[in-house]
Amino acid sequence: MSTVLSDPSERPRAHEVERFREVVIRFAGDSGDGMQLTGSQFTTTSALVGNDLSTLPDFPAEIRAPAGTMAGVSAFQVRIADHDIHTPGDQPDVLVAMNPAALMKELGDLKPSGVLIVNVDEFNERNLAKAGYASNPLEDGSLAGYRLYPVELTTLTRRTLEGAPLDTKSKDRAKNVFALGMVYWMFSRPLEPTIGWLERKFARKPELAAANVQVLKTGFNFAETTEVFQVRYEVEPARLAPGVYRNVLGNTALALGLVAASRRSGLPLFLGAYPITPASSLLHELSGLKQFGVTTFQAEDEIAAVSAAIGASFGGALAVTASSGPGIALKAEAMNLAVMAELPLVVVDVQRGGPSTGLPTKTEQSDLLQVMFGRNGESPVPIVAASSPADCFDAALEAVRIALAHMVPVVLLSDGYLANGSEPWRLPEVGALPDLRVEFASNGHSGGASGNGHAFAPYRRNPETLARPWAVPGTAGLEHRIGGLEKEDVTGNVSYDPANHERMVQLRAEKVERVARGIPPTAVHGDPEGGDLLVVGWGSTAGAIEGAVRMAREEGLSVSRVHLRHLNPLPLDLGEVLGRFERVLVPEMNRGQLALLLRARYLIDVVGYPKVQGRPFFRSEILAKIRTLLGATR
Amino acid sequence: MSTVLSDPSERPRAHEVERFREVVIRFAGDSGDGMQLTGSQFTTTSALVGNDLSTLPDFPAEIRAPAGTMAGVSAFQVRIADHDIHTPGDQPDVLVAMNPAALMKELGDLKPSGVLIVNVDEFNERNLAKAGYASNPLEDGSLAGYRLYPVELTTLTRRTLEGAPLDTKSKDRAKNVFALGMVYWMFSRPLEPTIGWLERKFARKPELAAANVQVLKTGFNFAETTEVFQVRYEVEPARLAPGVYRNVLGNTALALGLVAASRRSGLPLFLGAYPITPASSLLHELSGLKQFGVTTFQAEDEIAAVSAAIGASFGGALAVTASSGPGIALKAEAMNLAVMAELPLVVVDVQRGGPSTGLPTKTEQSDLLQVMFGRNGESPVPIVAASSPADCFDAALEAVRIALAHMVPVVLLSDGYLANGSEPWRLPEVGALPDLRVEFASNGHSGGASGNGHAFAPYRRNPETLARPWAVPGTAGLEHRIGGLEKEDVTGNVSYDPANHERMVQLRAEKVERVARGIPPTAVHGDPEGGDLLVVGWGSTAGAIEGAVRMAREEGLSVSRVHLRHLNPLPLDLGEVLGRFERVLVPEMNRGQLALLLRARYLIDVVGYPKVQGRPFFRSEILAKIRTLLGATR
Amino acid sequence: MTAEAVTPALTAKDFATDQEVRWCPGCGDYAILKAVQSVFPELGIPRERFVVISGIGCSSRFPYYMETYGFHTIHGRAPAIASGLKVSRPELEVWVATGDGDALSIGGNHLIHALRRNVGLKILMFNNRIYGLTKGQYSPTSERGKRTASTPSGSVDNPFNPLALALGAGATFVARSVDIYLPHLKETLRRAAAHPGAAFVEIYQNCNIFNDRAFSYITDKENRESSVVYLEHGKPLVFGDKGARKGIRLAGLRPEAVPVGDGGVSPGELVVWDETDPQLAWLAAQLGPPDLPTPLGVLRAVPDLTYEQGVLAQIEDARRRQGDGSLDELLRRGDVWTVGEDGAISQGAAG
Amino acid sequence: MTAEAVTPALTAKDFATDQEVRWCPGCGDYAILKAVQSVFPELGIPRERFVVISGIGCSSRFPYYMETYGFHTIHGRAPAIASGLKVSRPELEVWVATGDGDALSIGGNHLIHALRRNVGLKILMFNNRIYGLTKGQYSPTSERGKRTASTPSGSVDNPFNPLALALGAGATFVARSVDIYLPHLKETLRRAAAHPGAAFVEIYQNCNIFNDRAFSYITDKENRESSVVYLEHGKPLVFGDKGARKGIRLAGLRPEAVPVGDGGVSPGELVVWDETDPQLAWLAAQLGPPDLPTPLGVLRAVPDLTYEQGVLAQIEDARRRQGDGSLDELLRRGDVWTVGEDGAISQGAAG
Ligand SMILES: Cc1ncc(C[n+]2csc(CCOP(=O)(O)OP(=O)(O)O)c2C)c(N)n1
Ligand SMILES: Cc1ncc(C[n+]2csc(CCOP(=O)(O)OP(=O)(O)O)c2C)c(N)n1
Ligand code: SF4
Ligand code: SF4
Ligand SMILES: [Mg+2]
Ligand SMILES: [Mg+2]
Description:
Chain A is an alpha/beta fold. Chain A has 20 helices and 22 strands. Chain A is globular and about 85 Å long. Chain C has helices at residues 29-39, 78-88, 100-106, 108-117, 162-168, 182-194, 216-219, 224-227, 278-286, 307-322, 327-331, and strands at residues 50-54, 69-72, 93-99, 121-127, 173-178, 199-204, 228-231, 238-239, 246-251, 254-259, 294-301, 336-339, 345-347. The radius of gyration of chain C is 25 Å and the shape is elongated. At the B-C interface, helix 1, strand 9, helix 9, helix 11 and helix 12 of B face strand 1, strand 2, helix 2, helix 4 and helix 10 of C. Strand 17 (481-483) of chain A pairs parallel with strand 2 (69-72) of chain D. One thiamine diphosphate (TPP) sits between chains C (56-59, 75, 99-102, 126, 128, 130-134, 139) and A (274-276, 302, 326-327, 330, 357). One iron/sulfur cluster binds at residues 23-24, 27, 29, 58, 128, 132, 207-210 of chain C.
């Protein structure tokens, strides 16, 4: 393998080796089986050997559903490739099932004649019953269509650890590591990274570290020495652009983006948040970064969270609040105060399945219209969306840029799929990140005399951005009052004047429209000059759309794509771009929310492609849709 | 005058009499001057002599702004006509100004050479200064363009009450009654109704009653005997359809509609509310109707208000919650629970100027998109709008009908203009009101066995309406659990199944779409077969649009109108109707919210006509817009 | 509203649903479920009259496991939703199952207002001093300095004392018990059920995943006797292991633990518990470690008019005075006039 | 954050704005405004460091009339907004002006949490026992039976006792004064200003339009002496007119009014006020008509770590231990690898 990492196993002899451009592997087991750890270890190692990759965890909704039940199944899917990829893949080529429930729940997705590794030890009466199996699938031939590898994982693990200073319970917990070792062999992966990780993780419990390392190696050698697998897979490294990389989760990247924005703006970061799936980890991440001057305020509810952020913004902080659908609904009234007070604020919505409590652990894109319109009165706000786990970093910087430049609350849309999914991230040069410095109003400058005898005019605007001055408490001579009642233009005094109201409604709208001036022209991937079909996407559908469009083009179909970072305002040239194509397709994990905005704005009969199942699009689904639209049947 | 009411004044001799088809009168003064009472008395009396009419109050935002200031001006406009009218009129023909501030604030609206009655006693240095007058307009000739009648109202009132057992303060408070008496004479109105009202009002203070009656008569005779007015106006009764009438405010009609719905459905009415302008009077009205079994729950906030209503709905009550924009924003998350739980609920939004606290006492139509989209996830709800004060009664019945028939939360849109405006209302025959009876699920019936072993299937739907059964606590054998997590089709159990989620999202949407089957085809006023222009409106713009379209048609323009009661779902035939016209104009007191929905749905380039000034459209504005659109210049 | 089935004697099994219980193995919620399922049938109330309403949280999954009417609502709003139900259907037994985050964080306002209004709800707050469902953030009852997913360096704010907060809100019934003290918990539930107004019951509940052993200082065998004092109306406050019985005495307004039995102070000097005394209730709410035992039982139980009684009384009174309203008259209120076939106008509703 | 101007001695006039004050003539809010405007300059703090934050209500128009930084926010959220400001800018003097509806109805949860957290806010609650701005509906402090626009037959629920609620929430400073008792109100404001943590001040305020004379039982000349007792740290509780001085004594835990002076009980038997005693604070919160006088002054004042201090300390501590964070290192946390120009992959951040 073309990697400077040494491979512990001598190159295989006995086994034939198949080369693959990409492979999708899913680890599935009980929530207690450590599938998330197993998956992420395989991910890190694969990253280190240079594959491009993309991952997708699938947690159960319950904290700890009863062991052995369908509800308790936890899964982790990773796709590794020798080329640039953007999704965790549709169906797995390899499925590791740690118990009957996992098999029952996940088998449906496994590709025909896919590789299936099961822990036979768990396939007893009780577990089979819990999973709802009438007969044992390992025996009734129902798995004939797959390459089945039944392994006594538990037994083998126990045997490996005979005499180790651990109770059986702890020993059994290591069986996922045994499986991991086998899979490492299967894909010719080095063990060092995981060994190193185990030693770090169990630094305080050396006996546990030793045991796990031993089990890992035994699993590897077991696969090597026994004839259990006829075949070994190889996936060459992908040719990634030079640079320093790490594997990153969406919420981590988003948190880092906010910290970076704080550094680049010189403003202290304040997060007002109330825990909610799948946004909570933003609060967790940021609460651990106090050395960056980050303040995290776990409020009593979402209203207090956004309110506290507004207070911090009034005081001159880089204010952020984060939640998911139900919490965002609660923030609407206070967000509207920020709209009227014209204070910078970033509202992060990590979308999940709705309506109401809906599907907390599943993903969806169904809050677009909520954040666009869900406030009383005419209340426009800029909206930006992240399109991949790593992109959450850039999206956060862009949201902050707009908020500070225009003194306006900005909504940043992510979703559960991005939040918990991961991909390799090429680390940016800190120095190359956008300069977000702001200038507070100071006595004598900005605002200045408002003509009507007031010392300071809190609503005198920057002619370019229409931003009002940011005069923070503590600044002598700029004492002023703001609030939620309609403001008089320039002075900011309360005004009930009809003409003034219409003017202010106009100004707030125009200010948001002006944001479009600062965003780059629409990038068309494919045929910029136009063609039969344009696929327009936003948010986490990027990967699936990209893959589908590439494949369709390889099939010779005239299809291009546009992926929107800015959903409000839309790019100035978008209407013209759409006009260059015969048809426009908009795949969304909702019932057609962007489609509605495009139809209303451009009067183009865009074709919506809704998927509302709480899970991401498959590349194949979009490809199929493209084919039918273009009458390309195969 | 053709009325069986005797007119106390012998028919005038000395004065010439002008006949008018309609007249617009505005009473303006300090909030302490009782202008609202004066206006409503003139209204009632005019109603009793058979005029059609329409009124519009204009309160100051403050409870009691400083006397004599612009902020303290309170006004009441009434339009009386000998024909069917629907708006309080654009500009007044007659303005009564009780002090300089009132003159300063309202004069701008008075028609050229309009009648102007002012209380000279108030035009002193101090008051002129407070109102911002450099010189006295009564003397500097700046009122030359009007028919000015300066009257010493205060002096005359005091003189009238010389020796009456009242202190000067109380005496002065009667000056509005003196003015009213004069105006009664001016328009040849009978005094009895007001005399009767005064005697009822001051039943406990006979001396006050006597004094006011005396002042009223003196004012009347003063106008009669002095030569102060050269002219007297007459407005013949309108030919109203036979029936019993009363003058009604929008919020009163809405409250009555809810009580009627309660009676017709046989369900006890439960209102969960938190006070907010301009919705509070609904709470006030209903809290006084306990004999109708109405329960009003003044909650700690809007969230608790809608939540309590949801609890009552779960228990089988006719549940309603009412608020205005900011409060509706707060209700979003709980409304979404009602969407998921599929419980009937009516959410009344009496819209006001936004965003945020905005213009609490002003009117606007800017919550349409909020109630349409302002919830997380895919969360469709039916939306109906009232179009006139009296229509609030019918709109309430319709909202309840939909909620009960489809087991769904319904939004009922009104606004500040409807809430506080009034018009004559032809009382319906109670027996002729729609039958809204519902059948709760009972053991053995509806729902029934759900196939998967459950005793009762709370989500088994009525095939026609897609409504789920309403099984209320207390019903033996139908014990079941509902909640905000996604439901399994039919059983209502919690389900994370992707396909089920998509199906349920579909079903909830389809259920709302089905509402359209139950609504009448779109009524086109004008040329049903089509023409140059169709004006589409909703809500309180009805009157102004009706008037403008009628006038435009009289000018020979090919323009028709459609006024929408149902905003979601839209009538099944609407797209086809719009298609019959060259162009479509949508006047709205917002930046084009219905316009956006129509454009997205029908891909028609509708022309939006936004007015966001916190006050209603003038008929003349819409007429002008129609003319320009149709190139009819005059 | 609907005919009631004649109720055969019910058993705990009658209140169990067919739903698989999905709390973590070892969670204290199981014990609470068991207690409730065994107390409900004792109350001799038809099953269909029970409604269990919850918010969101592990504890709030409670309704799914109770074979009664149930509503798993949204986070923090259960007391408000339950109030609407109870006020419009006073004959129902409305129980609220909530958590420390659900009831005291997002739902704090609804809770204190439900208590203030004295709506006849039985509110069971499962206090595990943590956010369980969202995987372990600190809650308003977490002790200061608590290290959690959201407070890696420890929380900096003081927790609520739920009993003090309930008393401060004017609650008419306030009690505390512990998940695994089955007999005491059941007795406390019976008392709550018997109280006509709003009953607030704090139940210490162990979250063995995110806040294990939060209450071991009282639940561990060796501490049970010494660390808790049971509040029993009319009885002096005594506690402690056989050998070393102690009692609680007042030094001025300050409670202190003193030895009782031979050599100790006489029972006469000890505080005699009175669940109707507001001062005592407050005093008990302040008791607890390190110096004093944790009080369990009923801190306050005083009769008062319930909100729903007040509402009902006003409706009945209005009907008595004005007769059960005529819609026709209502519509015709105020000045009406009649337009005749001939267009003639007459005051009042002619004909 | 910004350079501070050297502050010349300020006067009340320096804190008045050019905005016309728009309360009803005779409104108690005028007196409160006067008191605040005269106390602020005494504090010797630069004007630009003051921030007045309010919700919505007549009382909440307060900021418009104070020449400081001000924020007239939304209904009920002032304590939350103020908390965010104070936590991120501890050097500011953050005052909250709110009403009984704003603070205790819609804003109840934010209030009790701000008090629990001990965020350094000075919260002035104008209690007129009514909703003024919305024209006279009953509020959570309206007495039961109150007839208002929204309760024509009288309210059926008990009001909150704001002092008891604040104590129940764990407030470190709780006080009460009256709009027109200027000297006492000013002294109370000074005490609140001096308290490092969250200070809750209930101010009885007359709404002469919708709830006139709500407090006449203490504000009327003839009642002033007899109906109120001033709480003064270290002094016995005595009250009443010259002739008939009375004191407050404890019968067990129950307070009672007893005659003092010649013939009366000796001062030694009376309750000596201690603003740090939780039991006394609770006791005082229960005092009031008909039998006992209304307590005015500071019920509770105890020092405690403030929330913002805790937050700041953790940030400084983190910086001390980890140096003020390097963004570059942060981004490179965890397993990183380097792809060379030649596509070769090496573990770690090479070069
Ligand atoms: C509006 C809203 N905000 C946040 C959440 C996320 N959430 C669900 S339960 C919960 C707190 C759970 O803690 P607690 O009430 O103590 O219940 P426990 O799980 O500990 O029993 C939170 C924050 C939500 N579901 N809805
Ligand atoms: C979200 C929201 N709900 C309701 C209102 C209407 N509202 C404004 S002030 C107020 C209550 C005022 O009472 P209080 O707080 O006691 O202040 P006061 O006017 O008596 O000084 C209400 C209900 C609002 N502005 N916003
Ligand atoms: S997380 Fe804690 S509270 Fe929730 S179910 Fe598990 S043990 Fe119980
Ligand atoms: S309504 Fe009452 S509280 Fe409001 S300004 Fe007038 S007097 Fe003051
Ligand atoms: Mg908890
Ligand atoms: Mg008030």
